[in-house]
Design goal:
The structure is a homodimer. By secondary structure, chain A is mainly alpha-helical. Chain A has 7 helices and 3 strands. The first copy, chain A, has a domain of 74 residues: Arc Repressor Mutant, subunit A. The first copy, chain A, has a 3-stranded antiparallel β-sheet. In chain A, a hairpin with a 2-residue loop joins strand 2 and strand 3. Chain A binds a DNA duplex through helix 4.
DNA sequence: TTCCTACATGCGTAATTACGTATTTAGTCT
DNA sequence: AGACTAAATACGTAATTACGCATGTAGGAA
């Protein structure tokens, strides 16, 4: 769950989407991304790391360089069917289970909102 | 592009993911969601609206009630293959095109980072 | 009309996020 | 060793986001 929030948060930024776009071309070092997007080095480094932490990028080191590339498996995790992905991310989650439970019991108990129009 | 950022932003919040989880059960009015998640009315209303604005929910009004339900088509837009979804979201985008161009021309011109290790 | 309910929203505040600048860390070379 | 380069990060700041509280809006019933 926390994982999924982090993943979506990583994708909800224009700079990082542009980075994915560039990395689709090929594996890049930080300064290539920085030049391609015309952003500062610190900004490139930080945003690449965010994508990496969220599981969307692979990282390998070659001497002085940090080489980032797309982790297709990481991206695909949320690809097949987002509805199912959300459900899966929440189904082991205690809070989410309670949410559903409370929704269902509300059907029987008729709380303050019992007069809800029938679906 | 702005659309996609907004969509991911809407999904990058625990409250809203829990809402999707509950709405998978069935269409709900605001106060049902509010009760299921045990959150305030204002919070429920605002976060449902955020999901709606991002294109993930459908909304119909029945008298006094606002009934939200999952818009499966909206969710599926980002479902088939997220890699392709990102690419599509960016391919008409001028900035993104420039990003790619700069990346490619860097190969030829050998800027300050010309000594990048071969891929 | 008046009252009640369901929902939306304006406002202020606290928390989070993004970024630039400057610095640090670490690999490479002489 | 010292110089140079790629990348990471600490710090301060501005912008954004999420929320509670209070209020506003509108449908329905009396």
């Amino acid at each position: 769950m926390r994982e999924m929030v982090k993943a979506f948060k990583a994708l909800s930024d224009e700079t990082r989407l542009r980075m994915l776009n560039v990395l689709m071309e090929r594996e890049c070092c930080v300064c290539e991304v920085m030049q391609a997007l015309e952003i500062s080095q610190a900004r490139a480094s930080r945003n690449l790391r965010a994508l990496y932490d969220a599981g969307f990028l692979k990282l390998r080191h070659d001497g002085l360089w940090s080489l980032y590339s797309i982790d297709k498996e990481g991206l695909k995790e949320y690809s097949v069917d987002m509805i199912e992905a959300v459900r899966k991310a929440l189904e082991g989650n205690e809070t989410a289970l309670l949410d559903r439970q409370r929704l269902k019991s509300a059907e029987r108990m008729g709380p303050s909102c019992a007069r809800r129009p029938s679906a």
